[in-house]
Known about the structure:
The structure is a single chain. The protein is α+β, with helices and mostly antiparallel strands. Helix content is 35%, strand content 25%. The chain has one domain.
Amino acid sequence: MTIPRFDDVRDAPLATDEEVLQRAELLLGHAIRRQLWLMFLDEYDRQLPLLMPTYVPRRPGPGHQENYARVLGVLFEDAEADSMVVAYERRGTEALSSVDRAWLQLVRDACAHAGIRLRGPLLVHDGGIRWIAPDDLV
């Protein structure tokens, strides 16, 4: 699978969840290490030219949600984005662990706190990528 060049996909909107998932599959493939990926979309759901990996510790700790809300808010504003796709990458199967749920809930809550329209979140695992539905986090 070839990673698309930004110039080749810049005008293709990611209007549906399936289109977001397909783009993430092209760009991220499968898990290599634990990190969060941030992809920013404009008001027409087109990908902006910024795909950013960010380190995350093994488990979220006290203050992480507040810190992530602040950092994500600044990045979101600087990117002049309208929405953001967040993918949590970690080695393992597609099954969610309690640590996965903690990170994914933290991301969802941090985006809500910062007023960011979240597309996803997604889980990048050894076998590929899956969409995380709200029910998956309960």
